[in-house]
Model the fold of this input.
Amino acid sequence: MCGIYDHQDAARFAYFSLYALQHRGQESAGIVTSNGKQVYNQKDMGLVADVFSEETLNKLPGNIAIGHVRYSTTGASNIINTQPLLISHKGKSLAVAHNGNLVNSIELRRDLEQKGSIFQTTMDSEVILHLMAHASDRPFEDALQETLTLLKGAFSMVMMTNDTLIAIRDPNGFRPLCLGKLPNGGYIVASETCALDLVEATYIRDIAPGEVLICRDQQLTSIYPWPPCRSSFCIFENVYFARPDSDIFGINVYQTRKRMGQILARECRIDGDFVMPFPDSGNYAAIGYSQESGIPLEFGVIRNHYVGRTFIQPTQSMRDFNVRVKLNPVRSFLEGKRVIIIEDSIIRGTTGKSRVRSLRNAGAKEVHMLVSCPPTRHPCFYGIDFPSTKELIAAQYEVPAIAGHLGLDSLYYLSLEGMVEATGMTMEDFCLACFNADYPVPPDRSFHKDALGGCGC
Amino acid sequence: MCGIYDHQDAARFAYFSLYALQHRGQESAGIVTSNGKQVYNQKDMGLVADVFSEETLNKLPGNIAIGHVRYSTTGASNIINTQPLLISHKGKSLAVAHNGNLVNSIELRRDLEQKGSIFQTTMDSEVILHLMAHASDRPFEDALQETLTLLKGAFSMVMMTNDTLIAIRDPNGFRPLCLGKLPNGGYIVASETCALDLVEATYIRDIAPGEVLICRDQQLTSIYPWPPCRSSFCIFENVYFARPDSDIFGINVYQTRKRMGQILARECRIDGDFVMPFPDSGNYAAIGYSQESGIPLEFGVIRNHYVGRTFIQPTQSMRDFNVRVKLNPVRSFLEGKRVIIIEDSIIRGTTGKSRVRSLRNAGAKEVHMLVSCPPTRHPCFYGIDFPSTKELIAAQYEVPAIAGHLGLDSLYYLSLEGMVEATGMTMEDFCLACFNADYPVPPDRSFHKDALGGCGC
Amino acid sequence: MCGIYDHQDAARFAYFSLYALQHRGQESAGIVTSNGKQVYNQKDMGLVADVFSEETLNKLPGNIAIGHVRYSTTGASNIINTQPLLISHKGKSLAVAHNGNLVNSIELRRDLEQKGSIFQTTMDSEVILHLMAHASDRPFEDALQETLTLLKGAFSMVMMTNDTLIAIRDPNGFRPLCLGKLPNGGYIVASETCALDLVEATYIRDIAPGEVLICRDQQLTSIYPWPPCRSSFCIFENVYFARPDSDIFGINVYQTRKRMGQILARECRIDGDFVMPFPDSGNYAAIGYSQESGIPLEFGVIRNHYVGRTFIQPTQSMRDFNVRVKLNPVRSFLEGKRVIIIEDSIIRGTTGKSRVRSLRNAGAKEVHMLVSCPPTRHPCFYGIDFPSTKELIAAQYEVPAIAGHLGLDSLYYLSLEGMVEATGMTMEDFCLACFNADYPVPPDRSFHKDALGGCGC
Amino acid sequence: MCGIYDHQDAARFAYFSLYALQHRGQESAGIVTSNGKQVYNQKDMGLVADVFSEETLNKLPGNIAIGHVRYSTTGASNIINTQPLLISHKGKSLAVAHNGNLVNSIELRRDLEQKGSIFQTTMDSEVILHLMAHASDRPFEDALQETLTLLKGAFSMVMMTNDTLIAIRDPNGFRPLCLGKLPNGGYIVASETCALDLVEATYIRDIAPGEVLICRDQQLTSIYPWPPCRSSFCIFENVYFARPDSDIFGINVYQTRKRMGQILARECRIDGDFVMPFPDSGNYAAIGYSQESGIPLEFGVIRNHYVGRTFIQPTQSMRDFNVRVKLNPVRSFLEGKRVIIIEDSIIRGTTGKSRVRSLRNAGAKEVHMLVSCPPTRHPCFYGIDFPSTKELIAAQYEVPAIAGHLGLDSLYYLSLEGMVEATGMTMEDFCLACFNADYPVPPDRSFHKDALGGCGC
Done:
């Protein structure tokens, strides 16, 4: 999710920002721009580089832009549900792009339908537009404040009218959102600092939890519609979701993950021949583990750079083919070795089993796994596309059973305290609900993620 | 390049072998199969995964197959020049796939045209088919021997008739070629062992330099048409070209590259804060350097996994954009650091300059580079797609000038002796011509690589 | 526009009906089906044969279907504006496909926006859905009657809920709509009888002006929400728009057009060598003219069957290329001849000029043109995609000036009386507004066709 | 088939010529050009308008061009077999495009393979290139004459070197070939005059049977390598194959076909209500029949202009669907009528049966058919893609049996004398082999059309 304000190359900057944020959503991509008078719109299913071309970018003139990349979820992955959402109402345009999940959207939607509103999408973000339409006889800021205070849940958002860019972060600040200055004037807001780095913007500060930043008439004004409350940063951004070269919640992701590996080495020392990640998710914790433990780091499996869209079925005899076609075990290296794998997390545990087996088939004598976060036992209602409790392996099984299931000689998870220590912050700063079920904003009774589609980023 | 003999899934095995060998050629891919009676053929421009589908594979029945992936060269990249080449002559089919370069093909071609032969492609491999056609009144083995002894240069080849698979390696053995046993019976020949690993074949042995292996009537027979000579293995396969999980010329590539890093650390110790590769080419030497020197390994830049076909132009202000869009410098990590980069080789030096500058822009204080081979000063006539002498940076400049050009604080190349030592073999085993101009097979006077297109693999 | 009720192959029958109705709209095509519980939807830009495949049809199960093909208009030709429109409101589905134009939609839309409704499309049909949503606390029939009586203009419509098909024709009956019985049970409604013929349905009767036919629980019930009024059939359907093999408003189109040619021969006898149409629009009137006058019919120009999407520019020297590439003048036939062209209508007059010149260049001595309707001098507000008054050549120029502009030796238009006589009906039965400016339903003051996009069929 | 000489827009003129000749081959299209030094080549499967774009035309510089469109035959429809064929031999380019069939190509090919030649295609045209290559130590004209005198059969050809265009017509002149002058200088040769008309070239004369026209150094020279013999023009060009606006063998096709209809009316008068063609093949004979007999012409079925690539299966109940989807019977017109159909020819008789039945189902009381040529009882060896004797319905059945098979009330074929009379020429001028088995050039014993693919045009 990103927004560009007051730059003649707004669409181009939005494009590159989305390109840098591609890891946050691969299902669809969209950009809306305005030249002060008219609003332009391009969105489609697919990766940023596939959705946009010089030709489509040239159809997006203007000096304001918002952009969005969306998750691949099974339920409602179609062109209608791409973001940003754009409407024209009473001759004015309003666009919104949203990262996170509202937990009371079903209730809000029911009320709106009762008043005759027709919904086009299954995304919770559409509720926001209808609330704005119903308040549209009030001045814009009043309508905005009224709408925002009706929302519950996680919502880092960018909104846009013909002449205004608005950046919004919910009072708990679940999802990151930062502000930067573009090299030749103008501003950028983006989910992660890596977007700022790519376009050579200078990081200014994070949008504060509960802040609404309004960019209009070349001025930036902040309003705070909610009473203050404690922050609930999503620690899973640091563990897995954010890009390692980003600074999230004020801390560098690479270094946080490396410290997780170092603390893991202090909590659990294994007698192994070498440490390895499965590329590339555990790379940084693996480096931390290796440096702290003195056990050498090696690349026991090598990522295939040409993995494409192969849909060719293997022959019956080829075991663990789907793993081996992407990750090539270095047979002559693994033979007879005691291997320590560092993983960032285990969610469903579906690929782990055949990954471990492929190491054993290549000759590994022992396979141990260390995970740089605690067991993920509870669903997320705030925008991480976690499976339901039934599919979370750590919600179904104890650690030794998981080790058995994966075919490991041993399995260890980082402690909750160790994980938080690695961030340099405190337990109170974070939402840790997926580890400890302590949900900062209770979801609506009828809340069910699938009904509304996944989050967007 | 690969061949499958005596397996009902021949096309599928060939497909997966090519998939594993994709790094050896990304321009085009092709497979020819035979069911003993009829020969089938599918080839096109593009990656293996794009050229083939279940549908196209189903059009390739039979239990013999040969496959080929081809390099992207500028001169003659078109559908006509895809391999394997297949002809029908006097009602019999003959197909050939070739890795390497003939150095006397122009001369051979001139003679054939004089006799009325018409050439369809600009590939040297076509010469072989015409020679076979002209000798076609002789028994097949005789025609083959007569043809092969006319050829000079580097040629690992697979040939196929309706009922026979032939694997050929030139007497110097420039390019690798190995033989394996398929899990449920049948044989495979392939350029690298990584193809055997993917299809779970068991490695038997390398095809020997000067060996012609004929697979027919479920029997494997070897003939040796040339007098014995010293081997000239291409050391650049070990340095750069082959996949790290392959064993090439009997040695593991990963471990060889790691030893190159270790020897590099003994030859040149730099006082730096950390060692890093540019992903992924210098990964293995970087591990070796780090372990030998004790200087920690870090990932100072991170490969973008979503690099696609973006052709969107950056704005004028974005410096070194093409590097940064692929490789993300970890700004908060590089800041103020003395960085040691390990590279596998420097050919043209074109990308190096902006890579180094992107590190400095991200805050690096010093940038040193160590290269895990000697300066590459001479063109290759045997199948590595090296630029001409004019474009080889080390042929044009001395090492300090190269360092200056790349913006480095220091630059060091591994010694020729160090490189060979890392392989565990001797100088006599290898072709080192690109480093020392000692060409084992003198090229034809009129030889000019571009005239015939690049090598295939 | 078509609807299928109570047949297991509903989507397939809708597909073939749209295929037969393709001449009524080439911009986009869509089908919505229901199996009683769930509603399915496929639509896209393009021709029917391109939008649908066996695969997409298989995604449209159920025994109720409505389908639509849409005009190509310049203003708002995009995927959002394809029909049928489908919404889900309070858990119930409602779909609508509309042929014609509402003349008070801007007013209705303004009122709805005031109440907070958000519009997704620029089509007048969407107004109908919002009106239904606002009346959704009433029983369905009541809501429907309330909604319909608010509409003014031309609207032949099919509507669909999960279990009901509704066919609607406005009280003036501007656009045709007929009812048929499917060969194996079930019913079909369609804009023209040619759709019934293709699927071998038996024609039952036309939906009457002002009739609302409700198909539910395997019963057909009619209600009549409006007070009776005189009919205003669009005579341009007979002149040009409908397919010649259809019966429209109870009369056969082919024979009507042939009679127009016969009456034309009585009104204006030209001394020419032969009569010819430009294929294929004037074919039937040309036959009538030839038979009545005794002047032989010939094909002076021949339609090129392979006209494709050629965008290749001709060289400068090639005159009237765009005509000649589609219509090949038979040079050796035209040479020295006095040619009588029969046209069905002249709207903009843009292609006529070069068509006439291509005949002269092929050697024609005289070129006369007779048109089988009066001059079209006024815009249509009821669904024929006429240009604005400014672009209607007959609104700008008198007949002799048009003849001069087109390069004709003479030009004659059929009289209004002659045209109506050819139908066998009376002036009172028809809307003749495009000829005589007598508009049966006065348009809204703010009505402007472009604001709402063109009609659909 | 066409050739352009001495015009800077050679490729563009070739493109438009092929566009006009599209009816002669829809399988593939290709153009080769030369700018005097280098030769350029573009060809692909598909229609002319799909194969070429402004972009591809711009890759065809030069002022000489030859072009070709090819038939769709079942045997060998692939990219390899597209024409023009282009080779480079001893550094010189030679391209050939061929319309017709050689009847001794298998023999010639066997001899060439014996000498070591490798064939890439299954087209008889390739034989010509190999013969030229084997004679390439002789001066070009000598090599050409030597090659041509070895060929037997039907061959209208254009050949091209870097600086020369050659147009060749076999001594019997089976296939047409004409010469024209381009509007701004330069020459054109083409299979039919309709290509000249489209590019506004002036017709000069036909290339004479047995003539070889050499265009070089801006001079046109003719040589005549064969002894004179009687001509054998293919009368099927006049009956069916050529475009009606072309003049073929010096006579206009439209008028010839109309005269066939007139003579048909004299030979066989039917008592019917109206005459109709199935659009569009019998249009011209139908006009002749109507004018001569005084029975009115009507369009009893109407061609659907939107017939696309529909592959949707009809439901079981839909009879004769494939006919009705293309040709719409005008039900209210056919009801109770006695219909006289005029057809140009009946080859396999496969579509006729359901065409006739669709008329009966639409209500026709009687259906009579008259064919404007005699029964086609014998295969063609000279380039018309006739089926084998087994598939020719008139070779298998007598006329009354054919009438019964097609469901007709009566069937009549034009007499051989009547057909020839319509041309204004004599029996001696034509090849009438498909009607009377009198083959002017006896085919090779081993000749089998399928072995070599179909003809090209």
In short: The first strand of chain A starts at residue 2 and ends at 5. DSSP finds 18 helices and 23 strands in chain A.
